[in-house]
Amino acid sequence: MIQLNDIFKYYDNKFQRSYVLKDFCLNINEGEFVSIMGPSGAGKSTLLNIIGMLDVADDGEYFFMDQPAHKLSDKKKVEFHRNYVGFIFQAFHLIDEMTVAENIETPLIYKGVKSKERKAMVADLLDRFNMVAKKDLFPAQLSGGQQQLVGIARAIISKPKLLLADEPTGNLHSDQGKEIMKLLKKLNEEEGITIIQVTHNEEFAQYGKRIIRIEDGMKKSDLPVATLLEQV
Ligand code: ADP
Ligand code: ADP
């Protein structure tokens, strides 16, 4: 599903060029649940943004579902992003002035889904996420865990093949974080959504099936969680 070949990303300032990703290679198959770990500034968010086509590499090739993303027009990239990729963030990024239901509905409006169908899809997801009673509340009236639930609902309402999560539990208490991780695991196992999460939490990383460690823009290790657990 995802194939990165010799990816480079750098930023130039007055005096020097600094590399965020160096000669980075990665393959991820459909249906995987991958955790990415590494120190602050290692390039994790940049990697996730390139995979989600929110950012472009300076060099290298990126194939997404066998399509050469590095050659696609901006318009095509937006289309790909809209149809196949869902994003969730550490700080939720909900729209404060919109209710829970309206937040979840937003991607469907961009996608051009008709109003009646949108309402039905949102109602269905609210029901599945046990949030029917909260549908008319605003984000500020919810706990962090509930806000992230809305973030996930919004990310999966358009049935993406790939869900990218940039520290989804970074702003949550550990019990709320655990609930979110259980939900991601369920979405992966029961609906086959491919998930890539960035996390600083060793325990939460193990909800994935594979852990990739990054330092200074380079891959340090890439191991199945089962192997890691055997080593303990
Ligand atoms: P960003 O991806 O927005 O650049 P960082 O990855 O630098 O942000 O950090 C995101 C959050 O994770 C911050 O709230 C920071 O306090 C926290 N964090 C950063 N490094 C660590 C770490 N080694 N262990 C635990 N938390 C960390
Ligand atoms: P991580 O998510 O692992 O914390 P990031 O991918 O956010 O790392 O950032 C990697 C490096 O790229 C950091 O050193 C950061 O300062 C740098 N960086 C990110 N965005 C920019 C930018 N727009 N301009 C210059 N440097 C940037």
From TrEMBL:
GO molecular function ontology, one term from the record = ATP binding
Task: Tell me if ATP-binding is a UniProt keyword of this record.
Answer: yes
| Source organism of this protein record | Carboxylicivirga linearis
| Record's keyword terms, sorted | ATP-binding, Nucleotide-binding, Translocase, Transport
Keyword Acetylation assigned to the entry: answer is no
**Listed name of the protein:** ABC transporter ATP-binding protein
Which PANTHER family does UniProt cross-reference here? CELL DIVISION ATP-BINDING PROTEIN FTSE, LIPOPROTEIN-RELEASING SYSTEM ATP-BINDING PROTEIN LOLD
- What superkingdom does the record give? Bacteria
Domain ABC transporter, residue spans? 2-229
The record's listing under InterPro entries reads: AAA+_ATPase, ABC_transporter-like_ATP-bd, ABC_transporter-like_CS, MacB-like_ATP-bd, P-loop_NTPase
Stored Gene3D superfamilies: P-loop containing nucleotide triphosphate hydrolases (3.40.50.300)
Family designation: Belongs to the ABC transporter superfamily.
